[in-house]
Predict the structure.
Amino acid sequence: MTTYPGSRRSSGFLFGICGLALICSACSSASTSPTTTTLTSPDAHSACNLVTPDEIRATLNKIVTQAKEATETNGTRCVYAAGSTADSVIITFESRVTADDFARRQAALSARLGGTTDLSGSGFSAYTFTSTAADAQVTSLITLIGGTQVGVTSSATLDQEEALTKKIYASLATSASSDPGAASSTTSVPTPARPAGVAP
């Protein structure tokens, strides 16, 4: 597949992480006001537990720490820190997102960034864009399947992010079917209608 062009341990490292987080939050909100993100360890039912550091290493080729979570109005953000800002990974989850919501957010983000690349196909909506945060160029892949929106932001390739996204939707389906209580958690997402993946 073609790579589509889209449009820490120190205070400097933490600033870079926050920059990546702001990029990721732009996918779900048109707001440009600054936000303060408080990261905590995820609880037992958190969506952040769906993706382990080992899975990120195997899929994105990034060595990261266990996820830290930021619960927001629109969903859950999982931050996987690494030895450098460029190698950090952010995964976002949001439930009850409509196709109209998704399209409106993409249009707003596209206008702000000067363009996004649409990757939508049968049964899913998706787009990607590239940004720069703390001198690191990162790619974001935002996907909507069955009302569940998943975003992956990293310096990995689009192919790698697609592979991780497929695993995430499969894990969501498995988690919801094996633990119905987790599906109702405020930090979890419901079973997607089509967890087959993002590749057309």
User: Anything to note?
Assistant: Confidence is low (pLDDT under 50) at residues 1-26, 28-36, 182-200.
